[in-house]
Amino acid sequence: MRRKKISQNALQKACFGTGCFWHVEAEFRKVKGVEDTAVGFMGGRLENPSYKDVCSHTTGHAEVCLVEFNPNKVSYDKLLDVFWKVHDPTQLNRQGVDVGDQYRSVIFYYDKTQRKSAIESMKKEQKKYKQAIVTQALPAATFYKAEEYHQRYFDKNHVAACGLR
């Protein structure tokens, strides 16, 4: 087990899309207070999509990382800081060599507090860029976990990064 078990009731969820979900999962797993992560898809029309389905550009899903975190150890605002640092939020439907709507920049919020924090952080972050931030802030929808070979991909394949930021 990665970390000491705590009550599942004490954990909160956050969900972010920053392009390739392998990269963002690896970054969030480094954050103290993040208890678990999973990569998958959110925000589309098809139930239980596969990676192949999402790559067809017909489902509307984004590649995302679902983060379960202990708010007594890490704040949602800290997770937002990580989100902004690991990708370029001014690139529409792409990150680096990955192109398509599944690679969009998106924050899926789970409640009004997360929504408010997401929008405030977006306004703060916009001051750092000349171009407009294209990040979406949307209510969380159903999370569909990606196939097992995508989970903790960098750990399983001894890859350090995918070359983004």
Rg over CA atoms, rounded to whole Å, is 15 Å
**If you average the pLDDT, what whole number results?**
89
How many strands, what sense, and barrel or not for the largest sheet? 6 strands, mixed
Amino-to-carboxy terminus distance: 29 Å
Placed side by side, the strands forming the largest sheet appear as 7-6-1-3-2-8
Explain the overall architecture.
It is built from 5 helices and 8 strands, in the order E-H-E-H-E-H-E-E-E-H-E-E-H. With 165 residues, the chain is α+β, with helices and mostly antiparallel strands. It has one domain: Peptide methionine sulphoxide reductase MsrA (Peptide Methionine Sulfoxide Reductase, Chain A, 2-Layer Sandwich). Strand 6, helix 4 and strand 7 form a beta-alpha-beta unit. It is globular. The model has no long low-confidence stretch (mean pLDDT 89).
